Amino acid sequence: QRAEWAKLRNEPTVTPDGHHVELAANIGTPADVAGVLENGGEAVGLYRTEFLYMGRDQLPTEEEQYKAYKAVLEKMEGKPVVVRTLDIGGDKELPYLQLPKEMNPFLGFRAIRLCLEREDIFRTQLRALLRASVHGSLRIMFPMIATLDEFRQAKALLLEEKAKLAAEGTPASDEIQLGIMVEIPSTAVMADQFAKEVDFFSIGTNDLIQYTMAADRMNERVSYLYQPYNPAILRLVKMVIDAAHREGKWAGMCGEMAGDTTAIPLLLGLGLDEFSMSATSILPARSQIVKLSLSEMRQLAARAIELSTAEEVVALVNGHQPRA
Ligand code: PEP
Ligand code: MG
Question: Which positions fall inside the PEP-utilising enzyme C-terminal domain (predicted)?
Answer without folding.
Answer: 3-292
